[in-house]
Specification:
The protein is mainly alpha-helical and 498 residues long. The chain has helices spanning 2-25, 39-53, 57-65, 78-83, 93-117, 120-141, 163-181, 201-221, 228-240, 266-273, 282-289, 296-299, 330-333, 366-379, 385-400, 404-414, 421-435, 442-450, 474-479; strands at 69-70, 253-255, 279-280, 336-337, 354-355, 361-364.
Amino acid sequence: MKQTYLKISILAIGILLNASCKKYLDINIDPDNISDAPLPQLLTSAQVNVGFAGGSDLFRYSTLIAQQMSGQASQPFQTYDYDRYNISGSDQNNVWANLNSTTLSDLELIIKKAAGSGSPYYGGIGKILKAYEYQLMVDAWGDIPYTEAQQLDKNIAPKYDKGEDIYKAITQLLTDAVTDLNAPTSVLSPGSNSVIFPGSFASAKPLWIKLANTLKLRIFLHYSKKDPAFAVAQMTTLINGGGPFMASTTDNFQMAFLNVSKQQNPIQQFEASRANYLFANDAMVSLMNAKADPRRPFYFTPFPFTSSPATYKGVKPGDPTTFDYSRIHTYLRGTATGTPAEQPGGSILAGAYVYSGAAPIKMLTYQEYCFIRAEAALMGVPGDAQTWFTAGITASMQDAGVSTANKDDYLTVNGTLAGTPAQQLQQIIEEKYVALFGVSMEPWTDYRRTGYPALVPPSNGVETQVPRSLYYPQSEIDLNINAPKQKTNLQSKVFWDN
C-alpha cells in the first residue's frame, strides 16, 4: 500500500509540475486568500459596509453633537467624552480606515471592473455610493484626499483636495452614474446580491436614479449659506429637468438588517454591547414635548416608565450622571419584547427590553427630500414650501408608525408655516431635525448651515462652541506627508460653512 501511494504521489506531483509550476507552486501567492473578487461579491460587501457605517462612528459623533442623543449619563464612557466635545484625532483612526481602505476601495474597484467588463449597471451603483460616502467625509472633515485616493500601494500618501472641488467632482459622478444606469445593455446586472434596493435590476434601477438626483439636491442645498444664488440656480435646473426624485418612503435609501445574531443593525449592536452609553437628549425631547409629538413612543421609552399619560425626559448638559432618563426605543432598534420594571427614580434597566435589531439604517429618506424641497421653495426654487412641509411631516409620521388620526391632529396644530422667512425656515429645520432622527450627519450639517435648532453647548465641554468639523485622524497626521497640519480645535469650518 505504501509503495502504491508513493507512486501516485510522485505521479500527481509530476502532473502538477508539468501543468503549471508557476500556478501551483508560486510561494508569493497565498492559496488561502482570494486575490480577485467578482463584481457581485464586491457590490454586496461594499453595500453592507455603507449601511453599517450609516449607524456607526460618524452617526454617533453627529447625533451627539447635534444633541439628538446624549452621552452625559454614561460617564466615564466614550460617549460621555464625545458629548462634551472631547473628541481627539486618534478617535478618528478606525472610521477613516474603514471608509478609505475598505468601503471606498471596494467601490473604486467596482467602478474600474465594471468599466473593463462592459457592466455599466454595476458602475452606476458604485458611483452613487462613492459620491454618498465622499459627501459625508467632506461634511465631517473638510479637505480630504480624493483625486489620489484609493490607489493602494501606488500612492500611500495621497494629496488633499479642497472640499469644494470634491463636491463638484461627486456632482459630476452622480450625473455619470445616471448615464451608466440608463445604458441599453450591461454584461452583468445586479440582482439579489444588491442588499440595498434588492430584487431585479429592472425594479431597482429607478430607485437608484431617484437616489442620485435626490442626493444632488442635498449637495446643492449645502451651498445655501456660502452661495445661495448658486444653490438656487442648481436646484432649479435639476428640478425643472424632471428628476426623477424620491416619491414616497418606499424610495428611502436605507439598509435592511435582520433579527439574527451579528446581523442586527449597528445602533442596536452598539446599544446591546455598551449598556448605558446613549440616552435621549433634552434638546430633541423638549422640542417634541412642546408639541406633544406622537413619534415619541417610537423614538424613546417613557420616563418615568410607568407614567400615565406617558412622559419623556432627555438629558441636559450638566445633568447628574444617573440613568434616570428616556432611552432610545424601537424606531432605531427594532421591535421590542419583554416587560421592563420601573426602577427607583423612574428609569428602566438597560437590557430590560430585547430589541430585534431589524430596524433599517436610514441614510437618505423621502422625508428629507420633502424638507429639502420646502427649504428650497423658501429660497425661490420651484415648489410650494407649505405643500412640501406638510409632506415631510406626513412621511416622517408614517415611517415611525404613527396613526393617521394622531398625524392629522399634529398637523392641525403644528403643520402650518407662518411668520417671516426666517421663522418659517426655523419651523422647517426643526421638523426636519425630528424627522431625521437616526440619519447620519445631516442634522449636524443643517445646524451648521442654519443655526437651527438652537443648541446649547454643555457646561462641561472642552470647547465652548458647537463643533464645526472633526479633527483629522491622527494616523493621517503621523503617516501621510501630504496631510495638512492638525486642526487646533473643532471650530474649523468646511467650505460650505463659511
